[in-house]
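Async update (no meeting this week)

Hi team, since we skipped the sync, here's where things stand on the single-chain job. The sequence we agreed to prioritize is pasted below, unchanged from the tracker. I ran it this morning and attached the output directly underneath so nobody has to dig for it. Comments welcome in thread, and please keep replies under the output.
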Amino acid sequence: MPPLRPYQVEIGRAVLESVFRRRGLTFTVEIARQGGKNELSAQLEVLLLAMHAARGGTGIKCAPTFLPQTTLSMERLKARLNDAGFGRRWRSQQGHIIRLGRARMAFYSADRSANVVGATADLLLEVDEAQDVDQDKYQKEFRPMGASSNVTTVLYGTPWDGGTLLEEQKQVNQELERLDGLRRHFRYDWRAVARHNPLYQQYVEAEAARLGEGHPLFRTQYCLELLQGGRGLFSAQQRAWLQGDHPRRHRPEQRGVYVAGIDLAGEAEGDDAPGMDAAVRVREPRRDSTVVTIAQVDYRRASDLLPEPEVRVMEHLWWTGRRHATLVGELAGLLRDTWRCRRVVVDATGVGAGVASMLGKLLGGGVLHPYLFTAESKSRLGFTLLGAVNAHRLKVYAADGSPECRELWRELELGQVAYRPNQRMNFFVDQREGHDDFLMSLALAVEAANRYAPRTAKGRAGTRDDVG
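Output:
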């Protein structure tokens, strides 16, 4: 089996002491992503199965989902049993139990809908990715599994916000530590892991360059920092990073590669006369707009470590109070004939589905990609946008004093972020403050840029054409 690193050994000894002495302690373990918490868990399981193979006993491990999280834990345990020489002795039962002699480890999903009532644990109770496990599910169904045996419990994970199962148990553990001095919480961020693995350090430093050290995922998964919601989406520094020095353009450059993101307004019965967008917003401040963000994509600085392109916002187009039937043709002409966009990502949620379908037919060639907003997909969009800003890959044209430029920067300043369970985020402008259509269009343009893959020139290894 792979040797454990010193910090893994430290955790393992504390857990095993509680198991052997029947102390029934509950531990919280935060190790930076890919730092070895699953390896530690598997080797603890092998040791306990081997020690109890003759007289029997049951360990239980759960994770937020059965596929893939729980099954990955099962496969790792099987591999470590093979490494330890038990390849011909262990057995798999019922699709979720691994038995060695009379001892067994049972694996369950901690999804709210999973039926786990009736299982008991007397060797060890483990909760993987505990920050994503519902607290009521744990308290009502998993925690009682070890009540009769005073089982030792280990909650593994990384921080998120202050309302997770992992965070609340961590706070309890730290208070107990102050009272009796017995360590129950273990924390090892990426720097602690990197001291024992230089290759890991290279990987994390590349992630910091790709996402930015201020990215929520980097802060939580590698720095093990707790997020605080109810704050601005972009700091003043991040907004400064967004400000480019290139001029706004109303027509494409000859060799430029362009993409677009479209946030669609709801259907409205309004005046279809052009050039009234800012006036309509002033007159009817609650009415949102259809906003198109045109961006130039540049892959010349992309690399294997940082594969995403640079994205330069070149133009904004917006319509307020336009009917979809009259807008689709104009959109198609601008995107296809004027800007020759290679990728267009459009909000296709609700009424947007029909517009996206019509627009896709007019653009042709698989150019258009509909984007359905759900809690999960919007979270991904927000993380992608933040990554582009933090890595200095996204720049907006130099301020020109136009109504659309002022509206964009207003929304960027007013943008808020709220953190949700299961490591998701929501980003928005409070409706009392105004709209987020320019903000969403910008995020969709970054998504379009990431979906565009430049052609590789044939016969010239390592070169690209259509790079912008």
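Quick observations from my side:
The first strand starts at residue 26 and ends at 31.
The chain has two domains: 6-209, 229-451.
Reply here if anything looks off.
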